[in-house]
Every structure is written in C-alpha cells, then in structure tokens.
Design brief:
Blueprint (H helix, E strand, L loop, with lengths): L21 H14 L6 H18 L3 H8 L3 H14 L5 E5 L2 E4 H27 L2 H11 L10 H31 L9 H32 L18 H23 L8
Antiparallel strand pairs: 1-2
Family: Belongs to the energy-coupling factor EcfT family.
Subcellular location: Cell membrane
Function: Transmembrane (T) component of an energy-coupling factor (ECF) ABC-transporter complex. Unlike classic ABC transporters this ECF transporter provides the energy necessary to transport a number of different substrates.
Length: 274
C-alpha cells in the first residue's frame, strides 16, 4: 500500500504538459479541482472525464501510474460511497432491507462523490508527475509574489512546500525498506483485521521518524553550508516567462470551466436508474 502512493513523484518525459510553465499547471489544476464541485450533472462529469483523459494522454504519463495512485484511497473511497449511499434519503426509494434504504438521491450522490475523489487525486498526480520540485517551487513563489507586500515570507513558504513534496517519495522508499527488513525478520503486515494491521505498522514509525529527522538535519546543514538565507536578493538561473503554449492552455482551461459550469447548472441531464 505504501509503495502505491504516487503524490510528489516526478515522471520525466518530453510532452506538451511537461513543457508548460509551472504556474499554468498549478492554476489549471486548481481550476480543474474546483470544476468538480461547481456542478452536479452526469454530462458535466463526462466532459471532465474527456478533459482529464486528454491531459493524461498529452502528458505521456502511463495510465498505470495514475491508477496506482488511487489505491491508497480505496478505503476512504469505499467509506465515502457507503456513507452517502445509506445516509442520503432523497428521491425515489430503489431498495430497502432491514434498517438500510437506498434512494435515487443517495446512489447519485455516492457515485458523484466517488468520481470527485478519484479525479481529485488523478488531477493532482498529473501536476506533480509533470512538474519538477524546483519548477513547483518557482511557480508557487511567482504566483504568491503579491503577498510579499503583506510581509508574507513567500519564498520560504514555497520552499517548504517543495521540500515536503520532494520528501514524500523519499520517506515512502525509506518506509518500504524498513518494512522489507522487518518482514525478513518475521514481521507480518498482511494478516489480521484493519486494527491489527494498524498496530503492526507502529514499529515502522519509530525508525521512519528517526530517519526523517536525520534527513531534515542533513538538509538544514547543507543549506547553511551553502550560505542559504532566504529569498531576499536571490536571482533565477531560468526565470519563468509565459509563452504562447501557456496562454493557449489557459484559454482551453477557461473554456472547459465555462462549459462545465453551464452544463452542470443549466442543462438538465439526470441520471435515471431503472
């Protein structure tokens, strides 16, 4: 399960999405995530599916990487679907057994919430797969630059977020090594119920935290030895500049947002269950 987490990993490739400005990918990802919640129409989600599928194809990131990133949220996904399925009591009753009632509104809400969660993770994964940690840092710093006037340490915030994203695959790899070492010594992480599996994971946390603190200390010493003192007076070797492809990406994303909003709010397209 730990090996299946893909958030924060970078997949090197030569694609149109990789070549986009990091600011474009950050803004467009946020707009895509917002679009999942501003409409509640099956046709709107069909449009979102086509948009996300096109982006995945253009990014040249293998689909198995996207699907692999969905595995860690399976439990959360099932919990959300079940809770919405049985607790949403609206619309026509489709089935009733014992104390559980499934309605048309509950089924509709549970399906849409499942799609939202999956697309939220997939959209975020595409951004990190196609953007290097340095690119994310530069993009976030540039987007948040106006906050400098309010004495917000934008560079430091962007640096911390980039380091956090970069540490995710490193810590996952470290956790995987610890698990394999303990399994070689007879530890069992697969058998038992959820509570027993959670208890079995406790011995992994101590060496993992020790390793994380050690890596953080080494990183801090390395930055100090290179005279790092924040963003004041720092220049960029490759400053970010918008190109024609970036403007086209903005325009296409805005067209998608407007289309999803109009379809989701004003076009009647109901999911009927027979």
């Amino acid at each position: 399960m730990i090996r299946d987490i893909t958030i924060g990993q970078y997949y090197p490739a030569d694609s149109r999405i990789h070549r986009l400005d990091p600011r474009v990918k950050i803004v467009c990802t946020l707009l895509f995530l917002v679009s999942l919640f501003i409409q509640n129409s099956l046709l709107g989600y069909v449009i979102a599916t086509l948009f996300l599928g096109t982006v995945i194809r253009l990014s040249k990131v293998p689909l198995k990487y996207i699907v692999k990133g969905l595995k860690p949220i399976v439990i959360l996904l099932l919990f959300t679907v079940v809770m919405n399925l049985f607790l949403t009591q609206s619309g026509e009753v489709l089935a009733h057994f014992w104390i559980f009632t499934i309605t048309e509104g509950g089924l509709r809400t549970s399906v849409f919430m499942a799609i939202r969660l999956m697309y939220l993770v997939a959209g975020s994964s595409i951004m990190t797969f196609t953007t290097s940690p340095n690119g994310l840092t530069d993009g976030m710093e540039k987007l948040l630059h106006p906050l400098n006037k309010l004495n917000v340490p934008v560079h430091e915030v962007a640096m911390m977020m980039s380091i956090a994203l970069r540490f995710i695959p490193i810590l996952l790899e470290e956790a995987d090594k610890i698990m394999k070492a303990q399994q070689a010594r007879g530890a069992d992480f697969e058998s038992g119920n959820i509570i027993q599996r959670a208890k079995a994971m406790v011995p992994i946390l101590v060496p993992l935290f020790v390793s994380a603190f050690r890596r953080a200390n080494d990183l801090a010493m390395a930055m100090e030895s290179r005279c790092y003192h924040g963003g004041d007076g720092r220049t960029k070797m490759k400053p970010l500049r918008y190109k024609s492809r970036d403007r086209i990406a903005y325009v296409l994303t805005l067209i998608y947002i407007v289309l999803v909003f109009v379809v989701g709010r004003y076009v009647p397209f109901k999911l009927w269950i027979f």
